[in-house]
Amino acid sequence: MRTSAAGSPERCMGRHPICAKGQRGFTLIELMVVVLIVALASGMVVFSLRDSQGIALEREGQRLAALLEYARAQSRLQGTPVRWRATRNGFALDGLNKPVPEQPWLSQDTRVLDVLPRNPAMDSTSLAALALGPEPVLPPQSVLLASGQTPGNTVRVATDGVRPFAIVPADAAAPAPAVRAP
Fold this sequence. Notes:
Layout: H1 17-20, H2 28-48, H3 52-78, E1 83-86, E2 90-94, E3 103-104, E4 110-116, E5 129-131, E6 141-147, E7 154-159, E8 166-168
């Protein structure tokens, strides 16, 4: 018994009136398989093109958290105060034995929206700063980062003073200090 592939001219072998006229086409199953493949491919593209600004801002927050923890550890190790301060195009760490040059943001549209706690001695034109030691327990602190292209997209890097700096929900203020049971 001979078999043929779908859509092959030998399939009907001239016995069906449509095949006899030379009209050939695709079966419904073949069309449904093609539609399914196109839908799966477009779905994968949509997920791979996830919010690139959100990913870049999250990466910026993770980098900042790691650098703040590094500066905090160096401050305790050296026994000297280290200060993180926002600059126009990035941030700087002041007080380290090995001076660190100003670090630019990975994305040029990253901005610092808020730094807690606010220093009342600083005027409104100054950019904010954080004190990172040398005390082992710090007051609760946080930095709110935002993307200039998508203003609603924010990331908060915070510590309660005991735990390390980490990304927390952006709508949360600096976490309350950790209370240890006696």
